[in-house]
Amino acid sequence: MTAPLAAVVLCAGKGTRMKSEKAKVLHAILGKPLCAYPLMRALELGASPVVSVVGHQAEEVERATRAQFPEAPLRFALQKEQRGTADAVRSAEESLKDFQGRVFILYGDVPLVRRETLEALVAAHEQAGGVLSLVSTRPADPTGYGRVLRAAGGVVRIVEHKDATEAERQVGECNAGIYVVESSFLWKALANIRSANAQGEFYLTDLVEMAAAQGAVGSIEADFGETAGVNDRVELAARARELQTRINTWHMRNGVTLADPATTYIEEGVVIGADTEIAPGVTLAGGTVVGRQVSIGQGCILTASTVADGATLKPYTLLEEARAGERGILGPFARLRPGTELAEEVHLGNFVETKKAHLGRGSKANHLAYLGDARIGAGVNVGAGTITCNYDGVHKHLTELGDGVFIGSDTQLVAPVKVGDGAYVGAGTTVTKDVPPGSLAVSRTPQVNVEGWAEKKKARQASSRGKATTG
Ligand code: UD1
Ligand code: MG
Fold first, then answer.
1. Which atom of ligand 1 is nearest to the CA of 24?
2. Quick one: which H or E segment has residue 159?
3. In whole angstroms, what is the distance from residue 271 CA to residue 114 CA?
Protein backbone atom coordinates (compact mmCIF):
# COMPACT_ATOMS: atom_id res chain seq x y z
CA MET A 1 0.00 0.00 0.00
CA THR A 2 2.22 2.73 -1.23
CA ALA A 3 -0.19 5.12 -2.98
CA PRO A 4 -1.34 8.05 -0.84
CA LEU A 5 -4.63 7.40 0.85
CA ALA A 6 -7.41 9.76 1.95
CA ALA A 7 -10.94 9.07 3.16
CA VAL A 8 -14.39 10.57 2.93
CA VAL A 9 -16.84 9.54 5.64
CA LEU A 10 -20.48 10.43 5.08
CA CYS A 11 -21.94 11.83 8.29
CA ALA A 12 -24.56 14.26 7.00
CA GLY A 13 -27.71 12.19 7.48
CA LYS A 14 -30.41 13.08 9.96
CA GLY A 15 -31.46 9.56 10.83
CA THR A 16 -35.20 10.21 11.02
CA ARG A 17 -35.93 6.73 12.32
CA MET A 18 -33.77 7.31 15.39
CA LYS A 19 -36.54 9.70 16.55
CA SER A 20 -33.92 11.82 18.20
CA GLU A 21 -32.89 15.42 18.76
CA LYS A 22 -29.33 14.18 18.22
CA ALA A 23 -27.77 13.48 14.82
CA LYS A 24 -27.65 9.76 14.11
CA VAL A 25 -23.86 9.50 13.85
CA LEU A 26 -23.52 10.93 17.38
CA HIS A 27 -25.45 8.10 19.00
CA ALA A 28 -22.89 5.96 20.78
CA ILE A 29 -22.05 2.30 20.91
CA LEU A 30 -19.61 1.18 23.59
CA GLY A 31 -18.78 4.72 24.60
CA LYS A 32 -17.98 6.22 21.21
CA PRO A 33 -20.21 7.93 18.65
CA LEU A 34 -21.06 5.78 15.63
CA CYS A 35 -19.01 7.93 13.26
CA ALA A 36 -15.87 7.50 15.39
CA TYR A 37 -15.52 3.90 14.24
CA PRO A 38 -15.18 4.36 10.45
CA LEU A 39 -13.08 7.47 11.06
CA MET A 40 -10.79 5.46 13.31
CA ARG A 41 -10.44 2.68 10.73
CA ALA A 42 -9.49 5.20 8.05
CA LEU A 43 -6.95 6.86 10.34
CA GLU A 44 -5.46 3.49 11.33
CA LEU A 45 -4.83 2.73 7.68
CA GLY A 46 -2.94 5.97 7.40
CA ALA A 47 -5.55 7.92 5.45
CA SER A 48 -4.71 11.61 5.48
CA PRO A 49 -6.64 13.76 5.30
CA VAL A 50 -9.85 12.17 6.47
CA VAL A 51 -12.86 14.26 5.51
CA SER A 52 -16.09 13.99 7.44
CA VAL A 53 -19.02 15.21 5.36
CA VAL A 54 -21.42 16.83 7.78
CA GLY A 55 -24.90 18.28 7.25
CA HIS A 56 -27.52 17.63 9.87
CA GLN A 57 -26.29 19.23 13.14
CA ALA A 58 -23.00 19.94 11.39
CA GLU A 59 -21.51 21.91 14.27
CA GLU A 60 -22.32 19.34 16.92
CA VAL A 61 -21.00 16.51 14.77
CA GLU A 62 -17.78 18.40 14.09
CA ARG A 63 -17.27 19.28 17.75
CA ALA A 64 -17.89 15.73 18.96
CA THR A 65 -15.63 14.28 16.27
CA ARG A 66 -12.75 16.63 17.03
CA ALA A 67 -13.07 15.74 20.70
CA GLN A 68 -12.64 12.07 19.80
CA PHE A 69 -9.58 12.70 17.62
CA PRO A 70 -7.86 15.85 18.86
CA GLU A 71 -4.62 15.19 16.98
CA ALA A 72 -5.91 13.59 13.78
CA PRO A 73 -5.65 15.01 10.23
CA LEU A 74 -9.41 15.60 10.03
CA ARG A 75 -11.26 17.98 7.78
CA PHE A 76 -14.94 18.78 7.71
CA ALA A 77 -16.98 19.48 4.60
CA LEU A 78 -20.53 20.73 4.65
CA GLN A 79 -23.25 19.15 2.54
CA LYS A 80 -25.93 21.82 2.68
CA GLU A 81 -28.79 19.72 1.42
CA GLN A 82 -29.16 15.95 1.40
CA ARG A 83 -29.30 15.31 -2.32
CA GLY A 84 -27.88 11.83 -2.36
CA THR A 85 -24.67 9.95 -1.71
CA ALA A 86 -22.88 11.28 -4.82
CA ASP A 87 -23.67 14.85 -3.81
CA ALA A 88 -22.39 14.07 -0.30
CA VAL A 89 -19.02 12.84 -1.59
CA ARG A 90 -18.80 15.78 -3.98
CA SER A 91 -19.07 18.10 -0.98
CA ALA A 92 -15.62 16.82 0.06
CA GLU A 93 -13.94 17.77 -3.24
CA GLU A 94 -12.81 21.19 -2.03
CA SER A 95 -11.26 19.65 1.11
CA LEU A 96 -9.30 17.19 -1.04
CA LYS A 97 -8.32 19.44 -3.94
CA ASP A 98 -4.65 19.21 -2.96
CA PHE A 99 -4.80 15.41 -2.65
CA GLN A 100 -3.92 12.87 -5.31
CA GLY A 101 -4.18 9.17 -4.71
CA ARG A 102 -6.81 6.77 -3.45
CA VAL A 103 -9.90 7.83 -1.59
CA PHE A 104 -11.84 5.55 0.74
CA ILE A 105 -15.54 6.25 0.88
CA LEU A 106 -17.24 5.06 4.06
CA TYR A 107 -20.54 5.67 5.83
CA GLY A 108 -20.58 7.33 9.22
CA ASP A 109 -23.41 5.06 10.39
CA VAL A 110 -21.66 1.75 9.61
CA PRO A 111 -19.51 1.16 12.68
CA LEU A 112 -18.36 -2.45 12.43
CA VAL A 113 -16.21 -2.42 9.31
CA ARG A 114 -12.90 -4.04 10.20
CA ARG A 115 -9.48 -2.78 9.31
CA GLU A 116 -8.68 -6.15 7.68
CA THR A 117 -11.62 -5.73 5.33
CA LEU A 118 -10.44 -2.30 4.20
CA GLU A 119 -6.95 -3.70 3.69
CA ALA A 120 -8.41 -6.53 1.61
CA LEU A 121 -10.33 -3.96 -0.43
CA VAL A 122 -7.14 -2.05 -1.21
CA ALA A 123 -5.40 -5.31 -2.16
CA ALA A 124 -8.27 -6.23 -4.50
CA HIS A 125 -8.12 -2.73 -5.95
CA GLU A 126 -4.42 -3.07 -6.69
CA GLN A 127 -4.96 -6.45 -8.26
CA ALA A 128 -7.84 -5.26 -10.47
CA GLY A 129 -5.82 -2.22 -11.51
CA GLY A 130 -8.95 -0.13 -12.20
CA VAL A 131 -10.20 3.20 -10.88
CA LEU A 132 -12.78 1.94 -8.36
CA SER A 133 -13.26 -1.07 -6.11
CA LEU A 134 -16.11 -1.90 -3.78
CA VAL A 135 -17.28 -4.14 -0.96
CA SER A 136 -20.34 -6.28 -1.52
CA THR A 137 -22.40 -8.27 0.96
CA ARG A 138 -25.34 -10.70 1.04
CA PRO A 139 -28.03 -9.66 3.51
CA ALA A 140 -30.71 -12.24 4.36
CA ASP A 141 -33.25 -9.81 2.93
CA PRO A 142 -31.76 -7.63 0.16
CA THR A 143 -34.82 -5.35 -0.09
CA GLY A 144 -33.74 -1.72 -0.27
CA TYR A 145 -30.10 -2.36 -1.14
CA GLY A 146 -28.33 -1.60 -4.39
CA ARG A 147 -27.68 -4.82 -6.36
CA VAL A 148 -24.25 -5.58 -7.77
CA LEU A 149 -24.67 -6.57 -11.42
CA ARG A 150 -21.95 -8.61 -13.06
CA ALA A 151 -21.15 -9.76 -16.58
CA ALA A 152 -18.64 -12.55 -17.19
CA GLY A 153 -17.77 -12.35 -13.46
CA GLY A 154 -16.81 -8.67 -13.51
CA VAL A 155 -18.81 -5.92 -11.80
CA VAL A 156 -20.46 -3.74 -14.44
CA ARG A 157 -23.05 -1.67 -12.60
CA ILE A 158 -25.05 -1.17 -9.43
CA VAL A 159 -28.78 -0.74 -9.64
CA GLU A 160 -30.68 0.68 -6.67
CA HIS A 161 -33.59 -1.41 -5.41
CA LYS A 162 -36.17 1.19 -6.37
CA ASP A 163 -34.84 1.39 -9.92
CA ALA A 164 -34.30 -2.36 -10.40
CA THR A 165 -36.31 -4.73 -12.57
CA GLU A 166 -37.84 -7.85 -11.05
CA ALA A 167 -35.00 -9.92 -12.51
CA GLU A 168 -32.34 -7.57 -11.04
CA ARG A 169 -34.05 -7.74 -7.64
CA GLN A 170 -33.38 -11.49 -7.62
CA VAL A 171 -29.65 -10.76 -7.29
CA GLY A 172 -28.48 -11.48 -3.74
CA GLU A 173 -25.14 -9.67 -3.94
CA CYS A 174 -25.65 -6.15 -2.57
CA ASN A 175 -23.61 -2.99 -2.41
CA ALA A 176 -22.24 -2.36 1.08
CA GLY A 177 -21.45 1.30 0.34
CA ILE A 178 -17.71 0.97 0.97
CA TYR A 179 -15.39 1.96 -1.85
CA VAL A 180 -11.87 2.90 -2.74
CA VAL A 181 -11.60 5.24 -5.73
CA GLU A 182 -8.73 6.91 -7.60
CA SER A 183 -8.97 10.68 -7.10
CA SER A 184 -7.99 11.22 -10.75
CA PHE A 185 -11.29 9.57 -11.71
CA LEU A 186 -13.52 10.44 -8.75
CA TRP A 187 -14.11 14.19 -9.04
CA LYS A 188 -14.53 14.22 -12.82
CA ALA A 189 -16.96 11.32 -12.70
CA LEU A 190 -18.98 12.81 -9.84
CA ALA A 191 -19.51 15.96 -11.89
CA ASN A 192 -21.22 13.84 -14.54
CA ILE A 193 -23.75 12.13 -12.27
CA ARG A 194 -27.39 13.11 -12.84
CA SER A 195 -30.44 12.60 -10.64
CA ALA A 196 -32.78 11.08 -13.24
CA ASN A 197 -33.80 8.04 -11.17
CA ALA A 198 -36.65 6.72 -9.04
CA GLN A 199 -35.61 8.81 -6.01
CA GLY A 200 -34.48 11.98 -7.84
CA GLU A 201 -31.14 11.69 -5.97
CA PHE A 202 -27.53 11.87 -7.04
CA TYR A 203 -26.49 8.23 -6.67
CA LEU A 204 -22.88 7.51 -5.83
CA THR A 205 -23.50 4.05 -7.22
CA ASP A 206 -23.61 5.53 -10.74
CA LEU A 207 -19.82 5.78 -10.44
CA VAL A 208 -19.54 2.02 -10.78
CA GLU A 209 -20.75 1.84 -14.37
CA MET A 210 -18.44 4.75 -15.30
CA ALA A 211 -15.50 3.00 -13.61
CA ALA A 212 -16.27 -0.31 -15.36
CA ALA A 213 -15.93 1.52 -18.69
CA GLN A 214 -12.36 2.44 -17.72
CA GLY A 215 -11.09 -0.87 -16.37
CA ALA A 216 -11.82 -3.73 -14.04
CA VAL A 217 -13.85 -2.92 -10.91
CA GLY A 218 -12.26 -4.68 -7.95
CA SER A 219 -14.52 -6.25 -5.34
CA ILE A 220 -14.47 -8.21 -2.11
CA GLU A 221 -17.36 -9.73 -0.26
CA ALA A 222 -17.80 -9.05 3.47
CA ASP A 223 -20.13 -10.49 6.09
CA PHE A 224 -23.37 -8.60 6.31
CA GLY A 225 -22.82 -8.21 10.07
CA GLU A 226 -19.77 -6.11 9.35
CA THR A 227 -21.32 -3.81 6.77
CA ALA A 228 -24.70 -3.34 8.47
CA GLY A 229 -25.60 0.22 9.34
CA VAL A 230 -27.74 1.81 12.00
CA ASN A 231 -31.13 3.20 11.10
CA ASP A 232 -33.04 2.98 14.36
CA ARG A 233 -32.37 2.26 18.01
CA VAL A 234 -33.01 -1.45 17.64
CA GLU A 235 -30.20 -1.61 15.10
CA LEU A 236 -28.07 0.60 17.34
CA ALA A 237 -28.38 -1.97 20.14
CA ALA A 238 -27.73 -4.83 17.72
CA ARG A 239 -24.50 -3.25 16.44
CA ALA A 240 -23.42 -2.51 20.02
CA ARG A 241 -23.96 -6.16 20.92
CA GLU A 242 -21.95 -7.34 17.90
CA LEU A 243 -19.10 -4.99 18.72
CA GLN A 244 -19.16 -6.10 22.36
CA THR A 245 -18.94 -9.74 21.30
CA ARG A 246 -16.06 -8.99 18.94
CA ILE A 247 -14.04 -7.07 21.53
CA ASN A 248 -14.73 -9.54 24.35
CA THR A 249 -13.81 -12.52 22.18
CA TRP A 250 -10.53 -10.84 21.31
CA HIS A 251 -9.64 -10.33 24.98
CA MET A 252 -10.62 -13.88 25.94
CA ARG A 253 -8.41 -15.23 23.17
CA ASN A 254 -5.61 -13.13 24.63
CA GLY A 255 -5.88 -14.79 28.02
CA VAL A 256 -8.44 -12.70 29.88
CA THR A 257 -11.22 -14.51 31.77
CA LEU A 258 -14.67 -12.96 31.42
CA ALA A 259 -17.14 -14.68 33.74
CA ASP A 260 -20.08 -13.35 31.72
CA PRO A 261 -19.14 -11.75 28.38
CA ALA A 262 -22.76 -10.72 27.81
CA THR A 263 -22.59 -8.23 30.70
CA THR A 264 -18.99 -7.13 30.23
CA TYR A 265 -18.55 -3.83 28.39
CA ILE A 266 -15.02 -3.20 27.18
CA GLU A 267 -14.50 -0.23 24.89
CA GLU A 268 -12.20 -0.34 21.91
CA GLY A 269 -8.68 0.69 22.88
CA VAL A 270 -8.77 -0.80 26.39
CA VAL A 271 -5.72 -2.93 27.21
CA ILE A 272 -5.91 -5.95 29.55
CA GLY A 273 -3.06 -8.23 30.58
CA ALA A 274 -3.20 -12.01 30.60
CA ASP A 275 -4.65 -13.94 33.54
CA THR A 276 -6.81 -11.05 34.56
CA GLU A 277 -10.26 -12.18 35.68
CA ILE A 278 -13.34 -10.05 35.23
CA ALA A 279 -16.64 -10.69 37.01
CA PRO A 280 -20.09 -9.90 35.50
CA GLY A 281 -21.36 -6.36 35.04
CA VAL A 282 -17.98 -4.67 34.59
CA THR A 283 -17.35 -1.67 32.32
CA LEU A 284 -13.85 -0.75 31.12
CA ALA A 285 -13.93 2.55 29.29
CA GLY A 286 -11.92 5.40 27.88
CA GLY A 287 -8.58 3.79 27.14
CA THR A 288 -8.27 2.07 30.52
CA VAL A 289 -5.18 -0.09 30.93
CA VAL A 290 -5.35 -3.15 33.19
CA GLY A 291 -2.28 -5.20 34.00
CA ARG A 292 -1.78 -8.95 34.39
CA GLN A 293 -3.36 -11.12 37.07
CA VAL A 294 -5.76 -8.42 38.14
CA SER A 295 -9.08 -9.44 39.65
CA ILE A 296 -12.00 -7.13 38.86
CA GLY A 297 -15.13 -7.79 40.90
CA GLN A 298 -18.73 -7.50 39.87
CA GLY A 299 -20.04 -4.08 38.92
CA CYS A 300 -16.73 -2.22 38.74
CA ILE A 301 -16.55 0.74 36.33
CA LEU A 302 -13.12 1.92 35.20
CA THR A 303 -12.79 5.00 33.03
CA ALA A 304 -9.49 6.29 31.63
CA SER A 305 -7.66 4.57 34.47
CA THR A 306 -4.67 2.32 35.00
CA VAL A 307 -4.55 -0.75 37.22
CA ALA A 308 -1.18 -2.39 37.75
CA ASP A 309 -0.39 -6.13 37.89
CA GLY A 310 -1.81 -8.25 40.66
CA ALA A 311 -4.32 -5.71 41.97
CA THR A 312 -7.70 -6.78 43.34
CA LEU A 313 -10.76 -4.66 42.77
CA LYS A 314 -13.61 -5.89 44.90
CA PRO A 315 -17.19 -5.44 43.69
CA TYR A 316 -18.61 -2.03 42.79
CA THR A 317 -15.36 -0.12 42.80
CA LEU A 318 -15.24 2.95 40.55
CA LEU A 319 -12.09 4.42 39.04
CA GLU A 320 -12.06 7.59 36.99
CA GLU A 321 -8.74 8.95 35.68
CA ALA A 322 -7.06 7.10 38.52
CA ARG A 323 -4.00 4.85 38.86
CA ALA A 324 -3.88 1.84 41.11
CA GLY A 325 -0.52 0.28 41.88
CA GLU A 326 0.68 -3.32 41.97
CA ARG A 327 -1.11 -5.70 44.32
CA GLY A 328 -3.40 -3.01 45.68
CA ILE A 329 -6.72 -4.04 47.19
CA LEU A 330 -9.61 -1.72 46.49
CA GLY A 331 -13.26 -1.80 47.50
CA PRO A 332 -15.86 -3.06 47.74
CA PHE A 333 -17.60 0.26 47.04
CA ALA A 334 -14.49 2.41 46.80
CA ARG A 335 -14.57 5.48 44.56
CA LEU A 336 -11.33 6.73 43.07
CA ARG A 337 -11.86 10.07 41.36
CA PRO A 338 -9.54 11.91 38.95
CA GLY A 339 -5.99 12.44 40.05
CA THR A 340 -5.89 9.51 42.44
CA GLU A 341 -2.47 7.82 42.32
CA LEU A 342 -1.79 4.78 44.42
CA ALA A 343 1.62 3.17 44.88
CA GLU A 344 2.01 -0.59 45.40
CA GLU A 345 -0.05 -2.49 47.94
CA VAL A 346 -2.35 0.33 48.92
CA HIS A 347 -5.66 -0.77 50.46
CA LEU A 348 -8.77 1.36 50.10
CA GLY A 349 -11.85 -0.25 51.60
CA ASN A 350 -15.58 0.26 51.51
CA PHE A 351 -16.96 3.76 51.12
CA VAL A 352 -13.59 5.38 50.71
CA GLU A 353 -13.55 8.28 48.25
CA THR A 354 -10.34 9.77 46.91
CA LYS A 355 -9.68 12.73 44.63
CA LYS A 356 -6.28 14.15 43.64
CA ALA A 357 -4.85 11.93 46.33
CA HIS A 358 -1.43 10.27 46.21
CA LEU A 359 -0.91 7.36 48.58
CA GLY A 360 2.51 5.81 49.11
CA ARG A 361 3.42 2.16 49.26
CA GLY A 362 1.35 0.01 51.60
CA SER A 363 -0.82 2.83 52.96
CA LYS A 364 -4.34 1.91 54.04
CA ALA A 365 -7.70 3.59 54.40
CA ASN A 366 -9.99 0.68 54.97
CA HIS A 367 -13.33 2.18 55.89
CA LEU A 368 -15.46 5.28 55.25
CA ALA A 369 -13.07 8.08 54.41
CA TYR A 370 -12.73 11.09 52.13
CA LEU A 371 -9.20 11.83 50.98
CA GLY A 372 -9.22 14.82 48.63
CA ASP A 373 -6.20 16.93 47.62
CA ALA A 374 -3.96 14.76 49.75
CA ARG A 375 -0.34 13.71 49.59
CA ILE A 376 0.06 10.66 51.75
CA GLY A 377 3.35 8.88 52.37
CA ALA A 378 4.14 5.19 52.65
CA GLY A 379 2.88 2.90 55.41
CA VAL A 380 0.20 5.32 56.57
CA ASN A 381 -2.90 4.06 58.37
CA VAL A 382 -5.96 6.23 57.89
CA GLY A 383 -8.68 5.35 60.40
CA ALA A 384 -12.35 4.85 59.69
CA GLY A 385 -14.34 8.03 59.11
CA THR A 386 -11.34 10.26 58.40
CA ILE A 387 -12.12 13.32 56.33
CA THR A 388 -9.80 15.76 54.63
CA CYS A 389 -11.58 19.10 54.88
CA ASN A 390 -10.04 20.33 51.65
CA TYR A 391 -12.48 23.06 50.69
CA ASP A 392 -12.95 26.32 52.53
CA GLY A 393 -15.85 27.38 50.33
CA VAL A 394 -13.57 29.23 47.90
CA HIS A 395 -10.32 27.31 47.48
CA LYS A 396 -9.09 23.73 47.68
CA HIS A 397 -6.18 23.04 50.04
CA LEU A 398 -3.64 20.27 50.43
CA THR A 399 -3.35 17.76 53.27
CA GLU A 400 0.09 16.16 53.68
CA LEU A 401 0.70 13.04 55.73
CA GLY A 402 4.29 11.84 56.11
CA ASP A 403 5.51 8.25 56.06
CA GLY A 404 4.27 5.93 58.79
CA VAL A 405 1.61 8.33 60.06
CA PHE A 406 -1.30 6.89 62.08
CA ILE A 407 -4.59 8.75 61.81
CA GLY A 408 -7.16 7.68 64.41
CA SER A 409 -10.78 7.12 63.46
CA ASP A 410 -13.12 10.03 62.87
CA THR A 411 -10.36 12.58 62.36
CA GLN A 412 -10.91 15.78 60.43
CA LEU A 413 -7.84 17.17 58.72
CA VAL A 414 -8.55 20.85 58.07
CA ALA A 415 -6.37 21.74 55.09
CA PRO A 416 -3.88 23.16 54.47
CA VAL A 417 -2.27 20.98 57.09
CA LYS A 418 0.76 18.67 57.48
CA VAL A 419 1.29 15.69 59.70
CA GLY A 420 4.99 14.83 59.96
CA ASP A 421 6.57 11.39 59.55
CA GLY A 422 5.66 8.86 62.20
CA ALA A 423 3.18 11.15 63.98
CA TYR A 424 -0.05 9.93 65.57
CA VAL A 425 -3.41 11.66 65.55
CA GLY A 426 -5.83 10.52 68.25
CA ALA A 427 -9.31 9.35 67.27
CA GLY A 428 -11.87 12.10 66.95
CA THR A 429 -9.30 14.85 66.50
CA THR A 430 -9.87 17.96 64.43
CA VAL A 431 -6.41 18.75 63.12
CA THR A 432 -6.12 22.47 62.39
CA LYS A 433 -2.38 22.92 62.98
CA ASP A 434 0.61 21.08 61.55
CA VAL A 435 1.68 18.07 63.60
CA PRO A 436 5.46 17.70 64.03
CA PRO A 437 7.09 14.38 63.13
CA GLY A 438 6.89 11.71 65.80
CA SER A 439 4.38 13.55 67.99
CA LEU A 440 0.77 12.87 69.04
CA ALA A 441 -2.03 15.29 68.25
CA VAL A 442 -5.30 15.07 70.18
CA SER A 443 -8.00 17.72 70.22
CA ARG A 444 -10.77 15.90 72.06
CA THR A 445 -12.09 17.34 75.30
CA PRO A 446 -11.15 14.99 78.13
CA GLN A 447 -13.78 12.40 79.00
CA VAL A 448 -15.83 12.86 82.19
CA ASN A 449 -17.60 9.91 83.89
CA VAL A 450 -20.47 10.86 86.21
CA GLU A 451 -21.01 7.89 88.54
CA GLY A 452 -24.62 6.82 89.18
CA TRP A 453 -25.97 9.31 86.65
CA ALA A 454 -28.38 6.86 84.98
CA GLU A 455 -30.10 5.92 88.28
CA LYS A 456 -30.53 9.58 89.18
CA LYS A 457 -32.02 10.36 85.77
CA LYS A 458 -34.56 7.54 86.15
CA ALA A 459 -35.57 8.87 89.56
CA ARG A 460 -35.96 12.41 88.19
CA GLN A 461 -38.19 11.13 85.38
CA ALA A 462 -40.38 9.07 87.75
CA SER A 463 -40.97 12.04 90.03
CA SER A 464 -41.86 14.40 87.17
CA ARG A 465 -44.38 11.79 85.79
CA GLY A 466 -45.96 11.59 89.25
CA LYS A 467 -46.42 15.38 89.33
CA ALA A 468 -47.96 15.34 85.85
CA THR A 469 -50.72 12.78 86.77
CA THR A 470 -51.66 14.29 90.17
CA GLY A 471 -51.38 17.90 89.02
C1 UD1 B 1 -26.81 3.25 -0.30
C2 UD1 B 1 -26.41 2.78 -1.69
C3 UD1 B 1 -26.88 1.35 -1.89
C4 UD1 B 1 -26.31 0.45 -0.80
C5 UD1 B 1 -26.66 1.00 0.56
C6 UD1 B 1 -25.94 0.24 1.64
C7 UD1 B 1 -26.52 4.80 -3.07
C8 UD1 B 1 -27.25 5.54 -4.12
N9 UD1 B 1 -27.02 3.64 -2.68
O10 UD1 B 1 -28.22 3.28 -0.26
O11 UD1 B 1 -26.44 0.88 -3.15
O12 UD1 B 1 -26.79 -0.86 -0.94
O13 UD1 B 1 -26.26 2.38 0.67
O14 UD1 B 1 -26.33 0.70 2.89
O15 UD1 B 1 -25.47 5.24 -2.64
N16 UD1 B 1 -25.81 10.46 3.15
C17 UD1 B 1 -25.37 11.75 3.22
N18 UD1 B 1 -25.88 12.68 2.39
C19 UD1 B 1 -26.85 12.38 1.46
C20 UD1 B 1 -27.30 11.05 1.41
C21 UD1 B 1 -26.77 10.12 2.26
O22 UD1 B 1 -24.50 12.08 4.04
O23 UD1 B 1 -27.26 13.28 0.75
C24 UD1 B 1 -25.25 9.46 4.05
C25 UD1 B 1 -26.31 8.88 4.98
O26 UD1 B 1 -26.37 9.62 6.19
C27 UD1 B 1 -25.82 7.47 5.21
C28 UD1 B 1 -25.12 7.12 3.90
O29 UD1 B 1 -24.81 8.36 3.29
O30 UD1 B 1 -24.85 7.41 6.23
C31 UD1 B 1 -25.96 6.25 3.01
O32 UD1 B 1 -27.13 6.93 2.66
P33 UD1 B 1 -28.50 6.21 2.50
O34 UD1 B 1 -29.50 7.20 2.11
O35 UD1 B 1 -28.78 5.37 3.70
O36 UD1 B 1 -28.21 5.25 1.27
P37 UD1 B 1 -29.09 4.03 0.86
O38 UD1 B 1 -30.33 4.49 0.24
O39 UD1 B 1 -29.22 3.12 2.02
MG1 MG C 1 -29.02 3.29 4.34
1. 26
2. strand 154-159
3. 18
Q: Which CATH homologous superfamily contains domain 257-441?
A: Hexapeptide repeat proteins (2.160.10.10)
Cα 430 to middle of ligand 2, angstroms: 65
Q: Check: CB of residue 94 under 8 Å from CB of residue 8.
A: no
How does pLDDT run across 77-96, given as a tens digit for each residue? 999 999 999 999 999 999 99
User: Rounded to the nearest 5°, which phi and psi values hold at 276?
Assistant: -85, 140
Average pLDDT value for residue range 260-267 = 98
**pLDDT beyond 60 at 471:** no
Pocket lined around ligand 1, Cβ cut-off 6 Å: 10, 12-13, 53, 55, 79, 82-85, 87-88, 107-109, 145-146, 158, 160, 174-177, 203-205, 229
Contacts 24+ apart (CB under 8 A), 148-156: 148/173, 148/174, 148/175, 148/219, 154/212, 154/216, 154/217, 155/208, 155/212, 155/217, 155/219, 156/208, 156/209, 156/212, 156/217
How much of the chain exceeds pLDDT 70, in percent? 99
Read off the pLDDT of residues 205-259 as tens digits, 9 standing for 90 and up: 999 999 999 999 999 999 999 999 999 999 999 999 999 999 999 999 999 999 9
pLDDT in tens, 99-139: 999 999 999 999 999 999 999 999 999 999 999 999 999 99
- Residues facing 159 on adjacent strands: 147
- Ligand 2 centroid distance, CA of 72 (Å): 27
Domain boundaries, the chain: 5-227, 257-441
Q: Which amino acid is at 368?
A: L
d(Cα 173, Cα 297) in Å, to the nearest integer? 46
Query: Is CATH 3.90.79.10 the classification given to domain 5-227?
Result: no
- Asked whether the bond before 332 is cis by omega within 30 degrees of 0, the reply is yes
